[in-house]
Each structure stands twice: as C-alpha cells, then as structure tokens.
Amino acid sequence: MRAPLLASLALLAALAGCQIAVEVRVTGTPEAPVFEFERDGGGAVSIMGLSVGTEGRPGTVWSISSDRCIDISYVIYGQAPPGFRQEAPAPRLEPRRNYDVDLIGCGASGGARFAILGDQIVAGSR
After folding, report:
1. 17 falls in which pLDDT band (50, 70, 90)?
2. Is 26 a member of any domain?
3. Which CATH number do you get for residue 38?
4. Order of strands, sheet of 98-105, starting from the edge strand that comes earlier in the sequence
5. pLDDT, tens digit, 9 for 90 and up, residues 65-93
6. Number of structural domains the chain divides into
7. For the segment 58-68, what is each residue's pLDDT rounded down to a tens digit?
8. Under the phi-then-psi rule, with left for phi > 0, alpha for psi from -120 to 50, and beta for the rest, what region is 35?
9. pLDDT score of 55
10. Residue whose C-alpha is closest to residue 53's, from 87, 7, 5
11. pTM for this one?
12. Which domain range does residue 97 map to?
C-alpha cells in the first residue's frame, strides 16, 4: 500500500517541476494595456492569476486571482476576466515607469516588462 502512494507522490513532484514557458506580450493603450499569452508549442494557457508590479518597488500594483486553473489567452489591465477576482481597483499606470507583469500559472510561467511612454506602451527587457 505504501509503495503506490510513494510512487504517486514522486510523480506529482516530478510534474510540479515541469513548467511550460509562456510568452507574455503587452499591447493595447496606456489606459488599458492588454497582456496576451502564447505558450511554447501552442495551445491554451492555464493560469490561476496575474500580477502587475513596479520595477524596483515592493508590492503589487494590481492583481487577479482564481481558486482554479482557467484557460485564457489575454487579460486587460483593470478588468477581471470571468472566473477571476481582483483584490482592488487598478490604479492609473504612471508614465516613464517600468512595470513587470507575471503569470501565476498552472504548470506554466511567464512574464514581461513594459513602460508607458507618451501615448505608447513600450516593451522592456527583464
């Protein structure tokens, strides 16, 4: 009885270490950035949350979360998609400041850096 349990736990531990890379692109407008997801090899991206933070500062500017994994291809800043909740309303993003967006994935990980410059969103490097 103990051997199958140990084998199952070993399999779960091995699978937990497998992360699928997800490319996160930031498009849209400075007022409503859109975070688009594409995983290596195609297919749906399953996430439990997303957070936006300011580079070099502790804390989160805006985030969404769910109690379960949800397949999704994009999130619009300030709008919680069906099945997700936001902790607080999204504040206006400040110009000339770097922001980091990170996925809280279900077997997936990814993120991006961006800034608001004038009336454009500019991709950065992390």
Report:
1. low
2. yes
3. 2.60.40
4. 85-86, 62-72, 45-54, 98-105, 111-117, 120-124
5. 999 999 999 999 999 999 999 988 999 99
6. 1
7. 889 999 999 99
8. beta
9. 83
10. 87
11. 0.82
12. 19-124
